[in-house]
From TrEMBL:
Residues 23-42 bind DNA. The lineage of its organism: Bacteria, Bacillati, Actinomycetota, Actinomycetes, Kitasatosporales. The keyword Repressor applies. Keywords: DNA-binding, Repressor, Transcription, Transcription regulation. This is TetR family transcriptional regulator. The keyword Endoplasmic reticulum does not apply. It comes from Streptomyces lasiicapitis. InterPro entries: DNA-bd_HTH_TetR-type_CS (IPR023772), Homeodomain-like_sf (IPR009057), HTH-type_TetR-like_transc_reg (IPR050109), HTH_TetR (IPR001647), Repressor_TetR_C (IPR004111), Tet_transcr_reg_TetR (IPR003012), Tet_transcr_reg_TetR-rel_C_sf (IPR036271). It holds the Pfam family TetR_C_1. Residues 1-60 form the HTH tetR-type domain. It comes from the Bacteria.
């Protein structure tokens, strides 16, 4: 058993039972070990959750970085869509990610993305706020989408309209990008 095996098993457990039901006791049972042996790899549950969040974000972390010829709007749109798709890959993916802090290679990627936005003519403060707003907007949308799915909203309740989550996400994202475009044009 190594750290990667523990994280993979924890993510499988997350997909089966949801974030609230993930416990080190259940994880140890799944791995066929005693609970204290998990602490060899992770000092506490928060450290495990942090490693799970990082591993769950791997598909987005390997998405292509912007190229100089890319248009900032097209790149930011696709980057945000990639982030959303990645969060949706895991049950409670947005809850797992919320509050996690980037580190190491993630910080390097964020720096490259910011440098691209600045080179594209976005003022520094607006570029920072755009990245922050797009990220938080995406997490919020996915939180609501995953909560609705868990509750079965729109399935058996004729009073509650069914929401096309992807269309709603795209509409809000367009508003963010349109606002940012006004700063670039100014």
């Amino acid at each position: 058993m190594n750290r990667e095996t523990v994280v993979a098993a924890a993510l499988d457990l997350l997909d089966e039972v949801g974030l609230d039901a993930v416990s080190t006791r259940q994880l140890a049972k799944r791995l066929g070990v005693e609970q204290p042996s998990l602490y060899y790899h992770f000092r506490n549950k928060n450290e495990l959750l942090s490693a799970m969040a990082e591993a769950a974000m791997a598909p987005h972390a390997t998405a292509p970085l912007p190229q100089p010829a890319d248009h900032w709007r097209d790149w930011l749109l696709e980057n945000t869509r990639s982030f959303r798709r990645t969060l949706l890959m895991r049950r409670d993916g947005a809850r797992l990610h919320a509050g996690s802090m980037p580190g190491g290679a993630d910080l390097d990627r964020i720096t490259r993305k910011m440098d691209f936005l600045l080179a594209s003519g976005l003022p520094e403060r607006e570029a920072q706020m755009a990245m922050l707003a797009a990220g938080r907007y995406t997490v919020g949308c996915v939180l609501e989408e995953q909560a609705d799915a868990d509750l079965g909203v729109g399935t058996e309740h004729p009073v509650v309209p069914t929401i096309d989550q992807e269309s709603a996400f795209e509409a809000g994202l367009a508003l963010i990008l349109d606002g940012l475009a006004q700063h670039v044009e100014a």
